[in-house]
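Fold this sequence, please.
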Amino acid sequence: MTVIISLLVWFLLKETDNSDWQFLWFLLPVIAFPATLWSQRKARKTVKTYIDRVVGYVWTVFGLGGFLVTCITMFVGNIPVLFTVLLLMGMGTALTGLIIRMKVVAVGGALGALLSIGCFYVLGMNQILFFALAFVFMMVIPGHYLNRMAKQDK
């Protein structure tokens, strides 16, 4: 979802030069929160382990932190939001990988956190494309790997 919205925001900014399209970033929590609730409800009822709860807490903290940074940026304006969100999500992903003992996830998260530094070197609207690419390496590739592993376990 983050990659799709990033590309949409980049495209609309590029085509219209209207910064109001930046508000589309708020689609992330608007779509992700109900989608998460729906998928959890649809999933088979299983026992929630300690690790499940810890990972849930990690993402609650990092997700709220990212949302807070984004909101503060609207009013303060001097916070490098794409850098900060990429750093936070990279740290959350790396921590999740360490907790669940999946090297691909931990490395993807560490790579995302390191790639956040690139936001200082890629300027303008192209920073959004860089952000989307970093999310592919940080979330999409490890996510597909986890799904493949889960299917093999069944």
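The first helix runs from residue 2 to 16. The chain has a mean pLDDT of 90.
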